[in-house]
Amino acid sequence: MIDLHIERLWLANNLRNYNYIAVCKKTGEALVIDPFGTRQILNAINDNGWTVKAVINTHDHGDHIAGNDAIMNATHAPLFAPLNAKIDHVDRWLSEGDQIRLGESIVFDVIDTSGHTLPHISLLSNTDQPELLCGDTIFNAGAGNVHSGDAEILFQTFENKISKLDDNTRIYPGHDYMQTNLEFTLSIESDNQSARAMLDQASRHSPESQIITTIGQERTFNTFLRLDEPSVINGLAELGTTPSRKAVFLALRALRNQW
Hints:
The chain is built from 9 helices and 13 strands. By secondary structure, the protein is of the alpha/beta class. It is globular and about 55 Å long.
């Protein structure tokens, strides 16, 4: 039996947010991740009889913390957040290497995935099917923006953390940008058949039922994980024929900002 369930809640707002509840199916204990849609979250908790053990923020943007107080007041759960984040009423500060236990056997490793913001964390489950609750670090077919962060730090996060994950790791990003990101991939790699096939699949799903991808799948169509691919480099002709991985990443992020 798989003990961990990830409840994904589509908020249907202009920012296209997802919220998540990680649940131990044996005990009903739950973690609320980046609450914004408080009504949807509390309805899911109450309808299923879950017990919230903690509210966890991956970073301090308003659409990831606005529901903190409402969820905490309703559930009496403590708040966990990344060390040095600008977040009020935090009970436990989290850093790389910390662990969060859920239920009888589930453990989440805290990973420093800064770049989109400073700081930013992600949670990686120790389960046979690894689950990555990644906030705004990696999206389906994309990477987080750096309007309030640092592109070079985000590159290091992708280079040293995201790209090292097992292929079967499923990702749970904070927003649904899949179709737009796949279209961006195809603007760089027009012959990427994996991106084209995934775009066809994604276009047939509503955000509520959108595909949950793995890192292995992402390697085939997420340009930010394809920095050595000739088809990506050829789409960035201004960099020359042998650019560094960092140069490719930064060029992609700059292009995506304007795309």
